[in-house]
């Protein structure tokens, strides 16, 4: 069983844009958070790809990865993930091959199957329906891997050369929030990261599928897994609620089909939650790491015990950069 005291810690960043902030503020905050995380001992710093969300500025992980890699020294930097349906595999290979050429063996390429946005935006990104269907994902994933490691001669893409790309392979992870990606990661012998931070009900089952389907001879000799967990913490329970509520309201509105602008702390504190909304927030937070340090310790230890993952990725989601920094400090201090 993985223990909190010695599990490798990593960070997932969405480049949050808070109320009253510009996109420049958001990305500057991400660089500052990464520079704060590195001396604390966090090993990986990943950016999630989202589009068309006013409160999230991480639409271009490759660009943010380059900025953070240039502003840090040793920490691995990567995507959590690049949503492959939005991109031609050759473009992704060239981008991450270039990052690998620039920053050496510090680059991770986490790959996701969902578009990370609505269908209209996904079509605008790809400009074609080809590749947007989930059934195309395994083939496009193999094309992407082939651009880095060499294509099968039977692949129609074998005549193409990714430069940079071939010979400049990042560390590749498969991301998922379902059994489909878990099984595919296992079959290919890839490391697998589960998006527990937004899909916490099926985590253990997906990891079981991953381990059961794992085949040696791919990239790994044994399964290697990680989960991402939302973290908002402070010594004061009142501060935790204050930092948590703006994001909770935004998430409720997204579930209602909106694309909400950032919510201020004052608006959040004055908001009248319905009993159903309060129940929704409580259910969502129950298996995350939201609370005082002692509560967060218990939540993380429980998750590590039930999942047995090899690494832990925390997604600091407080409303302020100060709290996101403090949350990273507290989680790291829980390791003793």
UniProtKB/TrEMBL annotation:
Residue stretches in coiled coil:
none
Kindly give the InterPro entries that the UniProt entry links to this protein: Bact_Lucif_Oxidored (IPR050766), CmoO-like (IPR019949), Luciferase-like_dom (IPR011251), Luciferase-like_sf (IPR036661)
Known CDD domains for this protein?
Flavin_utilizing_monoxygenases
- Which GO terms fall under molecular function for this chain's record? oxidoreductase activity, acting on paired donors, with incorporation or reduction of molecular oxygen
Q: Which GO terms describe its cellular component?
A: cytosol
Q: Where is the Luciferase-like domain?
A: 23-311
Q: Which PANTHER family match?
A: LUCIFERASE-LIKE MONOOXYGENASE (PTHR30137:SF6)
* Assigned protein family: To bacterial alkanal monooxygenase alpha and beta chains.
| Annotated protein name in UniProt | LLM class flavin-dependent oxidoreductase
